[in-house]
Design goal:
This protein has helices at 8-21, 33-61, 66-73, 87-91, 101-109; strands spanning 2-5, 25-29. It is mainly α. The chain folds into 2 domains: 1-31, no CATH class; 36-109, N-(1-d-carboxylethyl)-l-norvaline Dehydrogenase, domain 2 (Orthogonal Bundle). α1 links the parallel β1 and β2 (25-29). The relative contact order is 0.14.
Length: 118
């Protein structure tokens, strides 16, 4: 998925290339708004993952298994769908890095530009 900022005619000119590389093209407005949306998205992903993992630890401390919690939460409206993609890793206690925190930090601390590049 591409969050894209820029003039409509520029986004339209690049659309076929972006669609060849990703599932969707999401125009977000003027220059810099694609980066701004990426930051919004990353805040939600980071917080959802943190909350979910804290809940799993809490559930285990109460005697529940990760498997039982996943089975119940997988279809629950309180669980973000992307968390199901993490299930195998979490059940195996595989905490290898998929998205380094330094990249999340970079994304959350950059300021989106409202000016054209160049």
């Amino acid at each position: 998925m591409f969050f894209v900022g820029g003039r409509n005619e520029d986004v339209d000119a690049a659309r076929s290339l972006l669609e060849a590389m990703g599932k969707a093209v999401c125009p977000m407005g003027g220059h810099g708004m694609g980066s701004a949306m990426k930051m919004v998205n990353n805040i939600i992903l980071g917080q959802a993952m943190t909350a979910f993992c804290e809940a799993l630890v809490f559930g285990e401390s109460l005697g529940m298994t990760k498997q039982a919690m996943f089975e119940t939460l997988a279809t629950s409206p309180v669980t973000a769908p992307f968390l199901n993609t993490k299930r195998q890793k979490l059940e195996k206690a595989d905490y290898s890095v998929e998205f380094p925190l330094q990249w999340m930090h970079k994304d959350l601390h950059q300021r989106p530009s409202k000016r054209p590049c160049g």
